[in-house]
Amino acid sequence: MAAFTPLTYHQRAHNDLLSSFIGTASARPRRFSAARIRMSLQESAPSLAVVGVTGAVGQEFLSVLSDRDFPYRSIKMLASKRSAGKHVMFQGQDYVVQELTHDSFQGVDIALFSAGGSISKEFGPIAVRKGSIVVDNSSAFRMDENVPLVIPEVNPEEMAGIKVGKGKGALIANPNCSTIICLMAATPLHRHAKVVRMVVSTYQAASGAGAAAMEELVLQTREVLEGKPPTCNIFKQQYAFNLFSHNAPVLSNGYNEEEMKLVKETRKIWNNKDVKVTATCIRVPVMRAHAESVNLQFEEPLDEETAREILKNAPGVVVIDDRAANRFPTPLEVSNKDDVAVGRIRRDVSQDGDTGLDIFVCGDQIRKGAALNAVQIAELLL
Amino acid sequence: MAAFTPLTYHQRAHNDLLSSFIGTASARPRRFSAARIRMSLQESAPSLAVVGVTGAVGQEFLSVLSDRDFPYRSIKMLASKRSAGKHVMFQGQDYVVQELTHDSFQGVDIALFSAGGSISKEFGPIAVRKGSIVVDNSSAFRMDENVPLVIPEVNPEEMAGIKVGKGKGALIANPNCSTIICLMAATPLHRHAKVVRMVVSTYQAASGAGAAAMEELVLQTREVLEGKPPTCNIFKQQYAFNLFSHNAPVLSNGYNEEEMKLVKETRKIWNNKDVKVTATCIRVPVMRAHAESVNLQFEEPLDEETAREILKNAPGVVVIDDRAANRFPTPLEVSNKDDVAVGRIRRDVSQDGDTGLDIFVCGDQIRKGAALNAVQIAELLL
């Protein structure tokens, strides 16, 4: 429908802006070579399903599958009744979005879920019973002791034995975006000197609340610049030129759910009940990449230079730490990128000796914080 | 000149927006009653000088002097040669800005400086020799052991004996904005349970880099929304919908100057060389109020409820901590306000017992972070 409505200049600017932030195919060059399509479409390859395909993360699933030449025999585009019938393009082919039902998973080897916790709770187990391996981006099963919580660069061993072709369904949980981005940088240091305590403050982008939140930030910003009152639908307060404590519900201990995910998921992923973590999660008016200020206390000494070398050699991590040029990671710079960027690596002057470090981390919330990590998990299933 | 140029709608929206952020008289209601003017203009009152009157902080000096009915016999509006001849309105009267010279301080009792470190270094001592008491908002003299570094709610005793009318000049330094905002909340808790270590992550507004930086943020944001490349004059990278490590120079220990101000100024203001502080300072796309995530370690136990009561009773502090409504301090809410807002008050789950707290603080960078604190210091001189 919208496609047939002529857009005003502002609507077009708005949409171009969003697509560039959301990173849909229109915004980023795709290499849809015939070779790639041949490469990906293999009879022996798994059949895929993407649940929540019309959402920001769902769209990113498709981008990442394409970018990584993920092999597949077939792919089902699934979403809510509301989105059923929409068309999505994938690797040069047009697909009609189907409504998610209890019968959607017949013959599906791998199902990538990103449609919210309640959808995962209802349809995840159904898919597993049908023999699908579900990679779930929601928080529904993360703390379930029978469900591996995996960052492929950190704890791939947790999903040992779960493979496509064994005819056995399974659930694998994708950690929360803030946890993934933080641990991509903290884990290589933890392996070397053992983290005993971590104090994290986040600078979280709109994308974490979905595409509608990104659109609201753009709309609000335009309204504020024009001296109009900001429209508050997704968030209950002004987001443009402002920031606020993360909108997740606050628990009885005073932490919000987002913060406790960092605390609990870190313990599970590191398989270490003793690691002490505190976090303060803040939503900032940035589009799609999170930043985190991380203060680390180690059991063993770890000097700054060794830490920098460890991080330079860490998979999925890029070090941007140019003190002379005052050039360090920014959310904009990592947007639409796979790697998590780390900088501001320095000895913590508030700790004795070499047992403390401060670092600053940025990562694309939709990509490594969600879709990329899930697709990397799926790659381990082949 | 600009006043005679007809403004486009966008220019007007832009200017209204800026003035509302910068908080000039046009944006905030002033009570210019004859009574007030009578009250302020007293023969026995001090003669004032405002150095850097055309800057964001200089303008705020005038707003605060007016809001607080600061008594004065006369007031000199001083600025660089470039700004000399401009007109400023103050308490219903029109003043012509004079060029700052070595002779500017003849007969001046109190001089409020906010024109940068080099101007303070050159003209501060000259003013003192003329018998003026200089309240300096720059970093020029903050760490000089002979210069009191004062937050009136925290360490007024440091300026004991310095009074107008004794015919003796003196220098008093205004702490850095991030330090003032942090210590307004941390000090009442420190007095009760003694802070041994503090981990601070800041979310700093454009105003810290001056009015031109605020204008650049507005301009860049408009450009990005219109799909144009952002203009980068003040900052060397995109600020709109982005954030970056504070632009202060990075020192050999890897901390930038802004961060080390928090470390060193805290020790001086608390007169405690042992307090351990680390900070990570980040510039976020917010206009004029800073936010800070502060993790505190205490020597003595301090439970959450006691901390909340202490902060509720602290002068210049307001507690906004509604967990059920997820309502906590925001930069927008404290903009143009005197009080520093504190919320997210909770026991730190990463520390044993009741010796750790996390708090989130917001304060107006131009007001309590600069102009208000300086005028409060001046009030102590009377």
UniProtKB/TrEMBL annotation, chains A, B:
Q: Name one GO biological process term.
A: isoleucine biosynthetic process
Active site located where? C177, H290
Q: Where are the transmembrane segments?
A: none
Class of this enzyme: oxidoreductase
**Catalysed conversion reaction:** L-aspartate 4-semialdehyde + phosphate + NADP(+) = 4-phospho-L-aspartate + NADPH + H(+)
Known EC number(s)? 1.2.1.11
Q: Which SMART domains match?
A: Semialdhyde_dh (SM00859)
Q: In which pathway does it act?
A: Amino-acid biosynthesis; L-methionine biosynthesis via de novo pathway; L-homoserine from L-aspartate: step 2/3; Amino-acid biosynthesis; L-threonine biosynthesis; L-threonine from L-aspartate: step 2/5
- This protein's name: aspartate-semialdehyde dehydrogenase
Query: Could you tell me the keywords of this UniProt record?
Result: Amino-acid biosynthesis, Diaminopimelate biosynthesis, Lysine biosynthesis, Methionine biosynthesis, NADP, Oxidoreductase, Threonine biosynthesis
Native source species: Trapa natans
For this UniProt entry, the molecular function terms from Gene Ontology, in alphabetical order, are: aspartate-semialdehyde dehydrogenase activity; NAD binding; NADP binding; protein dimerization activity
Quaternary structure annotation from Swiss-Prot or TrEMBL:
Homodimer.
Spell out the family assignment given in the record's similarity comment.
Answer: Belongs to the aspartate-semialdehyde dehydrogenase family.
Describe the location of the Semialdehyde dehydrogenase NAD-binding domain by residue ranges: 47-162
CDD domains per record: ASADH_C_bac_euk_like (cd18131), VcASADH2_like_N (cd02316)
Q: Which InterPro entries match?
A: Asp_semialdehyde_DH, Asp_semialdehyde_DH_beta, NAD(P)-bd_dom_sf, Semialdehyde_DH_NAD-bd, Semialdhyde_DH_dimer_dom
